[in-house]
């Protein structure tokens, strides 16, 4: 074992602030801890130090005292370090109190050698930041986008947010973010997930959780198209698909269709199929969904209305969203939405509709607050 000296000594080996408290008796002198530091975060004081070059596996002792008191207390022994650095976390600290710390290396004969300095940490009062605004969830295909307002950010000590998943009995930390949004990719279409958000300040204090918000991811698709029934009848029907391997385009005569496209002198029409009804209002939207990185002012339809469905043919308009209530593969009612992006003609001058769509796999779940709606035009009225 390496020793700083083998002669018997009677000396005081301590930092200036504790010269009257720690006496080293006869024995070898272990290498002292180096670069002692301490910091506070989230109710914990973390004390760290580096190993001396002559360290030979000796343990360390951590001492502490409240500022304003004279007596030091032995609070922990540390026997393992990692990558030439040792760490101890002191959780027994009180808000509004300052603490001093020093560390000694302990020789195998009991000799202690103190760090060259004492470190002081001011523990703040644990006043948490404001609770974040109530979140809401944008249901996506294979993902949920959780977002909320900026009220907690106005606090002078604000640092970031934590996002939790709540399963009804316990909560799990999903992650942290410094923005008012979080994309959960660890979800499955057709399952409902509940989230809440807390705010963290620069000292690591955490607010209470926000209210819960739920989201149910569902399949969606961009850039689908169907032709006019009177021009290309075999590709004029559509059925919401539950699996990406299923082709949603059907014949306009297929009894399984949820709707087909028809045109006449008055325009393009959504013609409901068997067991399908359409909401009597269309919704002016800028996108099928306003998820991550959506443009400012994005407007979508995130929840289906529960009443006012009709079985009439509905006239279509570009940049409008239409909600359908259909019978799914399970024989139960489901909600779906289409957003028309273009009404026009192909190279053969055949009428065509290009649209985006989303479909909720959970029966009866409307998870798709519209901001503006207008009565849909019904054929013949």
What this model shows, in words?
It is a single chain. The protein has 381 residues and is mostly beta strands. It has three domains: 16-123, Sandwich (Immunoglobulin-like); 136-215, Immunoglobulin-like (Sandwich), CATH 2.60.40; 220-375, no CATH class. The chain contains no helices and 28 strands. The chain has strands at residues 34-41, 44-50, 60-66, 73-78, 85-90, 97-106, 112-114, 119-123, 136-140, 143-147, 158-166, 171-177, 181-184, 193-201, 213-215, 220-227, 237-238, 249-250, 259-264, 267-272, 276-279, 281-284, 309-310, 314-315, 320-327, 333-345, 351-359, 373-375. The strands form six sheets. Strands 16, 21, 22, 23, 25, 26, 27 and 28 form an eight-stranded antiparallel beta sheet that branches. A hairpin with a 2-residue loop joins strand 19 (259-264) and strand 20 (267-272). The N and C termini lie far apart (99 Å). Residues 1-27 have low confidence and may be disordered.
């Amino acid at each position: 074992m390496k020793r700083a000296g083998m002669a018997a000594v009677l000396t005081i080996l301590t930092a200036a602030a504790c010269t009257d408290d720690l006496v080293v008796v006869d024995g070898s002198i272990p290498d002292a801890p180096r670069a002692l530091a301490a910091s506070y975060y989230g109710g914990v004081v973390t004390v760290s130090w580096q190993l001396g070059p002559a360290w030979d596996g000796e343990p360390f002792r951590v001492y502490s005292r409240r500022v304003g008191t004279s007596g030091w207390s032995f609070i922990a022994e540390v026997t393992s370090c990692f990558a030439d650095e040792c760490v101890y976390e002191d959780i027994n600290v009180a808000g509004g109190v300052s603490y001093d710390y020093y560390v000694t290396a302990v020789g195998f004969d009991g000799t202690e050698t103190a760090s060259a300095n004492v470190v002081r940490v001011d523990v703040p009062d644990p006043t948490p930041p404001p609770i974040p605004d109530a979140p809401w969830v944008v249901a996506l295909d294979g993902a949920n986008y959780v977002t909320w307002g900026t009220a907690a950010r106005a606090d002078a000590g604000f640092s970031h947010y934590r996002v939790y998943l709540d399963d009804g009995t316990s909560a799990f930390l999903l992650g942290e973010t410094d923005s008012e949004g979080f994309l959960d990719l660890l979800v499955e279409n057709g399952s409902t997930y509940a989230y809440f958000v807390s705010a963290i300040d620069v000292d690591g204090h955490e607010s209470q959780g926000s209210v819960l918000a739920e989201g149910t991811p569902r399949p969606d698709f961009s850039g689908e198209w169907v032709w006019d029934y009177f021009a290309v009848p075999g590709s004029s029907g559509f059925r919401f698909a539950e699996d990406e391997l299923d082709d949603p385009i059907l014949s306009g005569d297929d009894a399984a269709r949820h709707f087909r496209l028809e045109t006449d002198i008055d325009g393009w029409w959504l013609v409901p199929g068997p067991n399908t009804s359409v909401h009597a209002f269309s919704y002016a939207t800028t996108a099928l969904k306003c998820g991550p990185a959506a443009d400012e002012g994005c407007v979508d339809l995130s929840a289906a209305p529960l009443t006012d469905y009709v079985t009439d043919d509905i006239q279509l308009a570009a940049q409008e969203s239409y909600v359908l209530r259909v019978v799914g593969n399970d024989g139960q009612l489901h909600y779906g939405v289409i957003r028309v992006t273009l009404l026009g003609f192909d190279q053969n001058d055949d009428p065509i509709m290009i649209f985006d769509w989303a479909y909720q796999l959970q029966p009866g779940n409307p998870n798709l607050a519209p901001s503006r709606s207008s009565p849909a035009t019904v054929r013949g009225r």
